[in-house]
Amino acid sequence: MSELQVLAGREIIAQSHVRDTLLRAERLPHIWCPGCGIGIVLGAYAHAVERSSIPVEKHVCISGIGCTGRVSGYMNLDSFHTTHGRAIAFATGMALFRPELEITVISGDGDITTIGGNHLIHAARRNVDINVIMVNNFNYGMTGGQHGATTPLEAKTYTTPYGNIETPFNVPYLVAAAGASFVARWTTLHVRQLAKAVERMMEVEGFAFLEVVSPCPPTFGEFNGFPEALDMMEYFRKHCVVDHSADLSKIGIGLKPGEKLVVGNFVDRRRPSYQELLEEMRGRAMGGEHK
Amino acid sequence: MSEKLLKPGTYFMMGNMACVEAALIAGCRFFAGYPITPSSEIFERASLRFPQVGGVAVEMEDELGSMAAIIGASYAGAKAMTATSGPGFSLMMENIGLAFIMEAPVVVVNVQRAGPSTGIPTLVGQGDVMQARWGSHGDLETIAYCPSSVQEFFDLTIKAFNTAERFRTPVFVLADQVVGMMWERLRVPQYEEIEVVERERLSPDMLGSRPPFDYSQDFNPMPIVGTGCRVNVDSLTHDERGYPTTDHAVSERMLSHLLGKIRNHAHEIWRWEEQMMDDAEIAVIAYGSTARSALKAVKTARSRGIRVGLVKLLTIWPFPDELIEKISQKVNAIVVPEINYGQLIHPVKEHAKCPVVGVNWAPGSLIEPHVIVDALEVIAA
């Protein structure tokens, strides 16, 4: 076999990758567009799985629908590509029955906060011990670039041709208020902090949430001043401020020039997880205690 | 079996409660629910009983979540169930399709109530018959059992779990408000008389010689998370490895497998009972609580010299087409009473070789036997 393989019209330079055992290499090339940030998130997750003390066969990756929804299928783990918005509810059932599993939901902003918003806040409220990594690219990419619950005010998408008039969610603020044990935000520029945050999420007892702000050059960037992959990376470089103790009520994202984009590990607190409380309650029920 | 299960013996019990006891005896240990009349006693009793036997009963934020959670629990190795009524059943349709394409064994109990939309929550209906068959988008083959008594609610709930495990597919118990809220005699047989089916599990070493989704087989062992199988399970149309595809040939293979595993084994699923059919010239075909009215009507009509019998369907989906065809060649007419405005009568008409007449009444009450007797008298004349 030659050093240089050509598959599906794309050049594959390397024969193998150090994380091949964690990826389904036979499924590559992936479907994501040039300049997309999702691959960086996948890399960070794979890195964290590799470094985690939990055996690989106990890791489960669950996604909803959309561009980010494809992450689970590329991971060489027990993986589930579920319905749109329902990944967290699906993961909840799995996590409550088998608490020893390390379940990570990786999905997009539309999937997690818009169609799946109800499941998000209730899983955070119950403090279900799962990890949720939400890639926020500010729009529905898979369907061609429509607005959602994270699209900044005035942003242009195919469904906000006159500019978005809806106020977006400030997701870390929302999830922290709902009760999550761990809440963080990083961007795809912060590769190392991202991987470290995911590692930490795997240790946290309770609901661990990470927002990853990511470029989407062809469907969001093009109409909002970030047409090339590097444009948004450059925005991150200039505007990001690391503040782990930020006032979460003030960290909504507007993507405006001059505005700070606050990143950090904002919340890391010990609250009993749903699984812990369930185990305790079940002990009482099995011991014969009646309501 | 656990000492915390309902012991063999005779009880006076509500249908909804009998359903929960049956689920526990069948090995169900995961329940996700959302309160809804007239099924709430199932959720309430599950909340009391599941933790006692080491199980989980969780309230989800809605029925979309309940349905998703039981599929997740199913892939975690649980026998899993939810219970609802019409409005919740509507919300579950999305993930019923997911359970079907993911081949996840789950049981969904629908205690039917009256009317479309919110309708009349506290009164009886049989309006979800067609929704149970066609409610989820795309082509599905579904399985639905219909109990007409507390005893049947108990027996068919166990049967539903066994069928779900064997076929790796969602199975419905389509009860109704009368059966769910009625108190009646229940006999729990000796445990060794109760058949309990356990699912076949995939192990990592089997993956060397077979793909996880072998479409040439009707039944495949199930990959359970945490056991090292590392299988992709997808809501998208997928190939034998579980990988998404848009290939026509693979799509055809996957659907043929999903539909075929049920169609090819429908005989194993069909359950029905016949009464007074030996010399019958007219057959009443009924299911659920309507079968109770129908039995009374058949007896009354018999006392008036009309040769009529009852065929009580315990399985309505997959539709027992061969049975209907056979009966329709023995009788001159078929009467189908339903607490809806004509649903199961359609497949009956499709397969019957004789005239088929519906008796339909669905304002929120049982069909009174005399209404069916009236129809029988007109037909006999």
Q: CATH homologous superfamily of chain A - what is it?
A: Thiamin diphosphate (ThDP)-binding fold, Pyr/PP domains
What's the count of strands of chain A?
A: 10
Strand order of the largest sheet of chain A: 4-3-5-6-8-7-10-9
Oligomer: heterodimer
Tell me the strand percentage band of chain A.
15-25%
Which of globular, elongated, flat, extended, rod-shaped describes the shape of chain A?
globular
Rg over alpha carbons of chain B:
21 Å
β-strand number of chain B: 16
Number of helices of chain A: 9
CATH class category name of the largest domain in chain B: Alpha Beta
How would a crystallographer describe the biggest sheet of chain B? 8 strands, mixed
- Architecture of chain A, according to CATH? 3-Layer(aba) Sandwich
What is the end-to-end distance of chain A? 69 Å
Order of helices and strands of chain A: EEHEHEHEHHEHEHEHEEH
Low-confidence stretches of chain B: none
Give the mean pLDDT of chain A.
94
Looking at this protein, list some descriptive labels:
heterodimer, A: alpha/beta, Rossmann fold, eight-stranded mixed beta sheet, B: 381 residues, alpha/beta, five-stranded mixed beta sheet, 38% helix
Give your account of this protein's structure:
The complex is a heterodimer of chains A (291) and B (381). Chain A is α/β, with parallel strands linked by helices and 291 residues long. Helix content of chain A is 31%, strand content 18%. Chain A has helices spanning 38-51, 71-74, 87-97, 109-115, 117-126, 171-178, 191-203, 229-239, 274-286, and strands at 5-7, 10-12, 59-63, 78-81, 102-108, 131-136, 182-187, 208-213, 240-242, 261-268. Chain B is built from 13 helices and 16 strands. Chain B has helices spanning 15-25, 40-49, 63-75, 86-102, 129-134, 150-167, 177-181, 248-263, 266-269, 290-303, 321-330, 345-351, 369-380, and strands spanning 9-14, 30-33, 56-59, 80-84, 106-114, 120-124, 143-145, 170-176, 183-188, 232-234, 272-275, 282-286, 308-313, 315-317, 333-338, 356-360. The model of chain B has no long low-confidence stretch (mean pLDDT 98). The A-B interface holds A 24, 27, 56-58, 60, 62, 65, 72-73, 76-83, 85-86, 89-98, 100-101, 118-119, 122, 278, 281-282, 285-286, 291 and B 4, 29-30, 32, 48, 51-54, 56, 58, 60-62, 64-66, 68-78, 80, 94-95, 97-98, 102, 223, 225-236, 243-244. Strand 4 (78-81) of chain A pairs parallel with strand 10 of chain B, so a sheet runs across the interface.
